[in-house]
């Protein structure tokens, strides 16, 4: 179990997170959603130990994150960052293998190599093994980092009662539909293997489809949390995102899907435009984030 | 020139890295033999058996004594120092490039060498006045220690100017390095303005780099630095590899980021400081050698650091032989030869790969 208790993060007098407490449970996928600037990435970085909170503690299986050495922590949790740039010509397999080079890890090169190759095949990049990282597309790079994180967790020694944590910060932002489901499917199977998985997602429909628990954030605090069917309600989403969103739950599947107002009603009429003047800007931003819109319309 | 992108995947880089290290050992051996056998006196290694026999029999043959002087007291320390200087500069260059995540971070380019040179020049110029207590305490180590702290000070100024929220801004880093280099150069100029003729000759040598002052005491003075660098390199490999992905990612992967940074900065400042102390400012070794190795074996520091040390040593020795022979019996400053080799490589880096090496 990964727990954050009463986390407050202040930067130059501004509270990025305000008394946030969350639990990321093993065997579950927890999606962190919310509008831009809600503090999703900050929360992930606090959970990762990368940002030290101004107040509050993060615990893994009851033990404070601060008491872990970096290498010890790396055996228990891996992170897929939002973006990374490499200034030197690494090949794909070299980046993935870096995940196995944590101090104190099993350093059998053959073993590390096999784990790295397996991780590459998990994200569908086996054919890219020897390509240079700098020549990959944004989505391919994202998958390389997913593979590196998997390689790191799989090289770390597993112990009874030790929860391993996988944190993903917007891992699907540059991915097409099929790779979105590939990466989130991998996150899902990590949870099925007993790991605690937290993933920041912009696409509410992906969150609804893949996550067990939703943490809905707004202005540095938690607006709501619970299973998708409880969180993805019209009133809650519309209030948090500042634009009208309809969450329809079709009876057979039971999975909520979210429809921004402007998609449902077609091009806004002049009268609507006036009425929505305050929230229009955010609606457009939201539209840009919606990659599953085609799916939603069907 | 061989481009990594064209050839990657054809041969395993791992195998290439090992081959590169083996080749570098052979190359360094050849360069050392060359450095020992070539010189304006025409004495070659063919004299070595005679010299060794004389050493044990106590012969007082004047010709043999001259050969002994040239081989054992002049060329051998010069060769050892040249190897040390080349290895130190190449390793320091590779470390700084890894740490700053920029292939242009050469100690000479970002002001670290200039800082070291300023401190060393100050020790020479002020050795009888302000710096007298320093010289008295450290004796033969006064100069390398001064250069070490000079390099360290320049590095710290650089890191504090170019660092924001724990991230080093690459553009700021290069510009700040140029500024630090210019400032240190101006102060060095000021010191030389007030120096006498003998000091001035020393100082000129310093700013252009030369191994002509090689001696056994200097070899002994650099020994602790060489040992420190050799001990630190294996400890830094993993940390620097992690840094290539970024500081946050290095932490995610279990690397003690602060410890790695501190060790790498201290060791590269020590290496550059000691190299500058014995040979003055020798540029471009730190940029040319790691670049060539990355083209051949990729950016993995398991290969870049050791192969860098070996090839850097070989390059400086060959350049020094050229410096000795081109205008013999006079000598060219080593810095001139290195710039002639290094500047084209540097231009290639900037034009082909873009500033910062990001394509």
Q: Looking at the chains present, what oligomeric state does this protein adopt?
A: heterodimer
What CATH architecture of chain B would you give? Orthogonal Bundle
Tell me, briefly, the overall form of chain A.
globular
The total of helices of chain B stands at 15
CATH hierarchy class name of chain B: Mainly Alpha
Portion in strands of chain B: under 5%
| Radius of gyration of chain A, whole Å | 20 Å
Average predicted local confidence, pLDDT of chain B: 82
Q: What is the helix fraction of residues of chain A, given as a range?
A: 25-40%
> Major beta sheet of chain A, specifics?
6 strands, mixed
Whole-Å distance between the termini of chain A? 38 Å
CATH H-level superfamily title of the largest domain in chain A: P-loop containing nucleotide triphosphate hydrolases
What is the domain total for the residues of chain B? 1
Strand order of the largest sheet of chain B: 1-2
Runs of chain B with pLDDT <50, length 5+?
1-10, 354-359
- CATH secondary-structure class of the largest domain in chain A: Alpha Beta
Question: What proportion of the residues of chain B is helical, as a percent range?
Answer: over 70%
């Amino acid at each position: 179990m990964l727990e954050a208790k009463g986390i407050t993060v202040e930067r130059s007098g501004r509270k990025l997170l305000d008394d946030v407490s969350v639990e990321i449970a093993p065997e579950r996928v927890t999606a962190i959603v919310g509008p831009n600037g809600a503090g999703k990435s900050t929360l992930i970085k606090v959970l990762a130990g990368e940002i030290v909170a101004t107040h509050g503690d993060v615990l893994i299986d009851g033990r404070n994150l601060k008491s872990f050495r970096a290498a010890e922590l790396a055996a228990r949790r891996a992170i897929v960052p939002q973006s990374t740039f490499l200034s030197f010509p690494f090949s794909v397999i070299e980046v993935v293998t870096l995940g196995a080079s944590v101090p104190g890890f099993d350093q059998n090169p053959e073993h590390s190599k096999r784990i790295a190759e397996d991780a590459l095949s998990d994200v569908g990049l086996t054919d890219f093994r020897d390509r240079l990282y700098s020549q990959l597309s944004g989505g391919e790079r994202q998958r390389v980092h997913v593979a590196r994180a998997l390689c790191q967790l799989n090289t770390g020694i597993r112990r009874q009662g030790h929860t391993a944590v996988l944190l993903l910060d917007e891992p699907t932002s540059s991915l097409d539909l099929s790779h979105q489901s590939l990466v989130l499917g991998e996150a899902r199977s990590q949870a099925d293997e007993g790991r605690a998985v937290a993933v920041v997602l912009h696409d509410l429909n992906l969150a609804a489809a893949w996550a067990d628990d939703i943490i809905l954030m707004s202005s540095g605090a938690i607006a709501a949390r619970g299973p998708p069917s409880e969180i993805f309600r019209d009133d809650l989403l519309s209030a948090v995102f500042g634009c009208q969103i309809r969450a329809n739950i079709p009876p057979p599947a039971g999975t909520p899907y979210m429809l921004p107002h402007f998609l449902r009603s077609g091009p806004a009429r002049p009268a609507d435009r006036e009425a929505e003047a305050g929230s229009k800007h955010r609606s457009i931003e939201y539209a840009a984030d919606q990659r599953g819109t085609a799916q939603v319309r069907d | 020139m061989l481009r990594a992108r064209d050839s990657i995947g054809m041969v395993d880089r791992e195998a290439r890295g090992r081959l590169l290290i083996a080749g570098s050992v052979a190359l360094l051996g050849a360069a050392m033999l060359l450095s020992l056998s070539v010189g304006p006196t025409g004495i070659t290694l063919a004299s070595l058996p005679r010299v060794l026999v004389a050493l044990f029999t106590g012969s007082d043959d004047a010709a043999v004594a001259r050969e002994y002087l040239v081989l054992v007291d002049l060329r051998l320390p010069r060769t050892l120092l040249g190897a040390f200087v080349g290895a130190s500069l190449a390793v320091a260059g590779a470390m700084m490039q890894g740490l700053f995540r920029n292939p242009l971070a050469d100690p000479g380019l970002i002001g670290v060498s200039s800082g070291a040179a300023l401190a060393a020049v100050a020790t020479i110029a002020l050795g009888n006045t302000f710096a007298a207590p320093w010289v008295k305490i450290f004796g033969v180590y006064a100069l390398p220690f001064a250069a070490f702290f000079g390099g360290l000070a320049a590095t710290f100024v650089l890191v504090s100017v170019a660092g924001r929220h724990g991230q080093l801004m690459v553009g700021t880093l290069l510009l700040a390095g140029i500024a630090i280099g210019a400032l240190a150069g101006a102060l060095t100029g000021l010191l030389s303005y007030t120096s006498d003729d003998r000091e001035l000759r020393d100082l000129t040598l310093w700013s252009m780099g030369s191994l002509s002052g090689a001696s056994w005491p200097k070899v002994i003075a650099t020994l602790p630095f060489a040992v420190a660098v050799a001990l630190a390199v294996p400890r830094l490999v993993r940390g620097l590899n992690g840094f290539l992905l970024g500081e946050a990612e290095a932490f995610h992967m279990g690397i003690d980021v602060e410890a790695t940074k501190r060790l790498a900065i201290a060791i590269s400042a020590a290496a550059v400081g000691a190299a500058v102390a014995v040979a003055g400012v020798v540029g471009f070794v730190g940029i040319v050698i790691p670049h060539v190795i990355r083209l051949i074996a990729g950016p993995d520091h398991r290969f870049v650091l050791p192969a860098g040390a070996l090839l850097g040593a070989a390059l400086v020795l060959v350049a020094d032989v050229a410096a000795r022979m081109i205008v013999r019996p006079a000598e060219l400053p080593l810095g001139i030869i290195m710039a002639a080799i290094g500047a084209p490589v540097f231009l290639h880096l900037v034009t082909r790969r873009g500033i910062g090496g990001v394509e």
